[in-house]
Write a structure and sequence with these properties.
The chain has 530 residues and is an alpha/beta fold. It folds into 2 domains: 276 residues, Alkaline Phosphatase, subunit A (3-Layer(aba) Sandwich); 105 residues, 2-Layer Sandwich (Arylsulfatase, C-terminal domain), CATH 3.30.1120.10. It is built from 13 helices and 16 strands. Helix 6 runs parallel beside helix 8. The radius of gyration is 25 Å and the shape is globular. The chain starts with a helix and ends with a helix.
């Protein structure tokens, strides 16, 4: 009887030990590689929110993006996500580093990301992630922090593009490495390479894939299968296409990269030696003979939008392929998938193309995210989010510490329905790359107002030979004027608003370390433009 009692005790002890060990292992699994979410970060180049049907713009009924829209339907859509510097290279650096341009050193298109910079991919590698980068890089230096990369040199080509792959010609300078030509269309090839990499991933190790499309960047060379898309469709025009510029300040009234200028380039009236040489538009010239100015603008708008949206169609198709892959391989539940762009893009609004300006069409970024384990379907987030917040958010989801040198903040809690009373009520923007067609400027955007100072000087950054232009302030009342067609800076009823916004702007600049004291010529312009 006694022996049987001790046998029961021994058996009980064994069971308890086994249960304890199992429990400890189970508890630990939330911090092991196997339980960390996979991350797929899909980023296009120059994809405006107005060209994504989930955002419900004037284009939504004629230019649908059903696969990208799935992310909003099955996850969350950010309605107020902004680039802190709306040009490709600086925005990409901000996304990786979580830092503003003056901190990470990437202010203009010509600046490169220092290879010693520790960024998002390094931090994920440190906690067990397999990391990869496929597609457009455009940060000029050799990619770091990625176990595998295969990238387009510079802007890359739409047809039969070249790629530089990690491990290829390693002893040569990155810019001089031998590239491999891939036959086909660039959006398809990037998708093929991405899925091929995904197929090779071990099931017990989390991964982060950054999949970066070239499209819909200029010049807009669409896949031949989409040549008849929009053939008999009249693309709706934006309300600001024929904006009366009289309300503008001296800094912006008579400058800008306009559709009219694009028409002149396309017809051969203006010749410019540039990578964006629109007089060599690859999908055919536009005959504007005999048309008046409004007719020219309308004709150019139709061609521009149709070609642009045709390249978007291939990107949307690509997103669908990735979503299908995740479903077919039981990866949906534990994979965070994001679709975004490096900034916005003017699609005829204010009669502009390109980006750079602090108008919403240029600085607003699409951001759609699906993560079934944590984000409710059809979530809409209206908080003001900056691209410096991306890296902290992904590190937060991965269970990694956010380093102190990241200036952004995780919005994971906001995505999951929490209300953060201390979330920033404004975003800071600075475009450094002064040109006579887009003056250098900085500003602050709140939910209701936007205050911009066009200091119009070449500072620190490559000046590209452009002369200094006129300096001025502009203010937009976003609640009453969401299309930003009425600069109200000079109106007496807004003076208290201006004083408050200037105070906020100064405090923000001090907080992030981007003060004006180091630029005497800028301070002088501030004094004379009050």
């Amino acid at each position: 009887m006694v022996n049987r009692f001790f046998s029961y005790i021994s058996l009980f002890q064994i069971v308890c030990v086994v249960c304890l060990v199992t429990s400890l292992i189970g508890c630990g699994q939330t911090n092991t590689s196997a339980q960390k979410p996979n991350i797929i970060f899909i980023m296009s180049d120059d994809h405006a929110t107005n060209a994504i049907s989930a955002y419900g713009s004037h284009l939504a009924n004629v230019a649908s993006t059903p696969n990208i829209d799935r992310l909003a339907a099955e996850g969350a859509i950010l309605n107020n996500c902004f680039a802190n510097n709306s040009i490709c290279t600086p925005s990409r650096a901000a996304i990786l580093t979580g830092q503003f341009s003056h901190v990470n050193g990437v202010r203009t298109l010509s600046d490169q990301l220092d290879t010693t910079t520790v960024h998002l991919a390094h931090h994920l590698q440190a906690i067990g992630y397999n990391t990869a980068l496929i597609g457009k890089w455009h940060l000029h230096s050799e990619p770091q922090g990625f176990g595998y990369w295969n990238v387009l040199p510079d802007q890359g080509l739409y047809f039969n593009p070249e790629f530089i792959e990690k491990g290829q010609d390693e002893h040569s300078d990155f810019h001089n490495r031998t590239a491999q030509t891939h036959e086909g269309y660039v959006s398809d090839i990037i998708t093929d390479l991405a899925i091929d990499w995904l197929q090779k991933q071990a099931k017990d190790q989390p991964f982060m894939l950054m999949m970066h499309h070239k499209a819909p960047h200029a010049l807009w060379e669409y896949h031949p299968k989409y040549k008849d898309l929009f053939k008999d469709v009249e693309i709706p025009e934006p309300a600001s296409l024929f904006e009366n510029m009289k309300h503008r300040s001296d800094a912006t009234r008579d400058v800008g990269n306009t559709l009219m200028r694009l028409a002149q380039r396309m017809s051969g009236q203006i010749k410019i030696s540039s990578v964006h040489n629109y007089d060599e538009w690859p999908t055919g010239k536009l005959n504007i003979d005999g048309l008046d100015q409004k007719q020219i603008i309308r004709a150019v708008y139709q061609k521009y939008l149709k070609d642009y949206l045709r390249t978007v169609a291939s990107v949307d198709e690509s997103v669908g392929r990735v979503l299908d892959y995740l479903k077919e391989n039981d990866l949906e539940d534990n994979t965070i998938i994001i679709y975004t762009s490096d900034q916005g893009m003017f699609l005829g609004e204010h009669q502009y193309l390109d980006k750079r300006w602090m108008f919403d069409e240029a600085i607003k970024m699409p951001f759609l995210i699906r993560y079934p384990r944590a984000i409710e379907v059809k979530t809409e987030l209206n908080s003001l989010i900056s691209n410096v917040d991306f890296a902290p958010t992904l590190l937060d989801y991965a269970g990694a510490n956010v380093p102190d040198n990241m200036q952004g903040r995780s919005f994971k809690s906001l995505l999951e329905g929490d209300e953060l009373t201390d979330w920033p009520s404004s975003i800071y923007y600075r475009y450094w790359m002064h040109r006579s067609t887009t003056p250098a400027h900085y500003g602050i955007r709140t939910a209701e107002y936007k205050l911009v100072f066009y200091y119009a000087l070449n500072l620190d950054a490559n000046n590209y030979g452009h002369p200094d232009t006129k300096a001025a302030w502009e203010l937009y009342d976003l609640k009453n004027d969401p299309l930003e067609m009425n600069n109200v800076y000079g109106l007496a009823e807004y003076q208290d608003v201006i004083i408050d916004l200037k105070r906020q702007l100064k405090n923000t600049k001090k907080q992030i370390g981007d003060t004006d004291e180091q630029y005497p010529e800028l301070l002088q312009r501030l004094k004379i433009t009050k």
